[in-house]
Write a structure and sequence with these properties.
44% of the residues lie in helices and 9% in strands. By secondary structure, it is mainly alpha-helical. It has a two-stranded parallel ribbon with strand order 1-2. The protein has a two-stranded parallel sheet with strand order 3-4. It has a two-stranded parallel sheet with strand order 5-6.
C-alpha cells in the first residue's frame, strides 16, 4: 500500500487501530516517516453505537496513546469503526480535541472485489473536496488481502487526474 501511494505521489491519511500498532510499531513509524498523516481509528475495532458509552470513552484515549508511542506524533483526527459514532465516541472526541472525519467516496474495498471495481466506485464519487475511504488491511473485513486496494491506487490516481483534480491532505 505504501509503495503504491509513493508511486502515485499520494500522501494519505492513515486511520490506525491501536491494538494493531502494538503488534507492529515499526509500520506505524514508517507510515509517518513516509509523509502520511497518522490519525486515530480507535484502540479496538467495534461498533460504538452498539456498546455502552464508557467503552468508547475508554477506547479513544487508549488508542491515542498507542499511536503516540508507535508513531511519535499526536493525531488530531478520528474516524470511527464502521463510520458509526456513539455517544461515548462523540464525548471522547470533544475531550481529546479530535476532529471527527467521514468520507464521501469509497471503493467498498472491505469486500472481496477487484482493483478495477474499487477504482470505478471511487471515481464515481470523485469531486472537489472528496474524501476517499480505502482500507490498508483485510483484518476486519471478509477479504483475504488488501492487494486489490493497492492495485486500485494508480487507477484512482489516473481517474483523479482525468477529472482535473489533485490529491491534497485533509484541511
Amino acid at each position: 500500500m505504501l509503495d503504491a501511494l509513493d508511486q502515485s505521489s499520494i500522501a494519505a491519511v492513515f486511520f490506525l487501530v491501536g491494538e494493531q500498532l502494538l503488534r507492529n510499531q515499526a509500520l506505524g513509524r514508517e507510515i509517518a516517516m513516509r509523509g502520511h498523516e497518522v490519525a486515530l481509528h480507535g484502540f479496538e475495532h467495534f461498533h460504538h453505537a452498539d456498546e455502552p458509552s464508557f467503552r468508547a470513552r475508554d477506547d479513544l484515549p487508549k488508542g491515542l496513546g498507542a499511536l503516540e508511542v508507535a508513531c511519535g506524533v499526536r493525531p488530531t483526527r478520528y474516524r470511527p469503526p464502521y463510520g458509526v459514532f456513539g455517544e461515548g465516541s462523540w464525548e471522547a472526541c470533544a475531550k481529546l480535541e479530535l476532529e471527527p472525519v467521514y468520507w464521501s467516496a469509497w471503493g467498498l474495498d472491505w469486500e472481496d472485489i477487484h482493483a478495477e471495481r474499487i477504482a470505478e466506485l471511487v471515481a464515481r464519487d470523485l469531486e472537489p473536496g472528496a474524501i476517499v475511504l480505502l482500507h490498508d488491511s483485510p483484518r476486519y473485513a471478509p477479504r483475504a488481502s488488501a492487494a486489490p486496494t493497492a492495485a486500485a491506487i494508480p487507477l484512482i490516481a489516473e481517474a483523479t487526474r482525468e477529472k482535473g483534480l489533485d490529491f491534497t491532505g485533509l484541511p
